[in-house]
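so my prof wants the structure for this chain in the tokens format not the other one, which i didnt know existed until like an hour ago. anyway here's the sequence
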Amino acid sequence: MRGNRVSTPASKILRFGTGGYALDAARRSLSIATSGLQALEAQFQEPEFSATFLRAIDLIMKMRGRLIVTGIGKSGIVARKMTATLTSTGTPAIFLHSADAGHGDLGMVTPDDLVLMLSHSGESTELGPIIQYCKRFAIPLVAMTAQAHSTVAQAADICILMPEVQEACPNALAPTTSTTVQMAFGDSLAVSLMEMRGFSADDFHKFHPNGRLGAQLTKVRELMAKGDDVPMVQEGASLLDATIEMTRARLGGTAIVDKDGALIGAFTDGDLRRAVTGKQNLTELVGRFMTVTPLSVGPDELASEALHLMNEHNITLLFVCDRGRLIGALHLHDLLHAGVA
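here's what i got, hopefully its the right format
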């Protein structure tokens, strides 16, 4: 019947191949991939590999142009991902499809650039035109390959030798573990370059202004109410003055400041209800009912940290201070509307 799907229990999954189960194959694949990553990590313990890695880092840091990342097949797909990670973390990079290189795309490569070539076998014929171009115009070539005596390795100025790993494919044909290792190495390269450049969360936000990630890196000053939109009254104001100000600003509260503009208290809708319930005269000073030294944040705090503070203390309004002086107000709704979570 439509809408009544019956799931097949794991015990009823049919055998395949040599008689193993799909779950066994999945676990085996992950185990082999883990072994490959461990082999890559072990490479960094070897002096020769570490020295080669540092030479590549130094060359990339000193390049005046861009890092041209290239590869073919599955290595090409990894190269695309590596390019995306590098560009978003401060290293100018561009992907060059090896199959298109010999048909005009080599024109994107300049003498100021550096080519990073990915090839597990080191013998893909599509890479030939790029190698020749690099030699002709003295463009540095860094290779990532698992074959030390391959064409790519021999042509490279720097060869980063990937560990020989077992593919998870039962036929040892489909690139699986080898591409996992390539991907992990690309991430380690990007992170190392981030560290070298001192790439900060602010820098990251510049490259990720949209989406949830951008929202998490938004600063308080970008979302806060400022100027006349900030509700505030002087410390000598009455309950009525505070009520009028809260109604005007519609943020659910008002700040109380001293003559120098320093934040000394907060008065909220809840405080007003308690005062009215107690049959207080609205001419009484708001200072009697305010929260003394309320929570506040700085303008350069992350909006996500402000949200965490609100949730932790069960409040919906934070005032923003710079060196003690009130400069803004931040409401929970502003954070949620901006996608901060």
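also thought this was worth mentioning. The longest strand covers residues 325-331.
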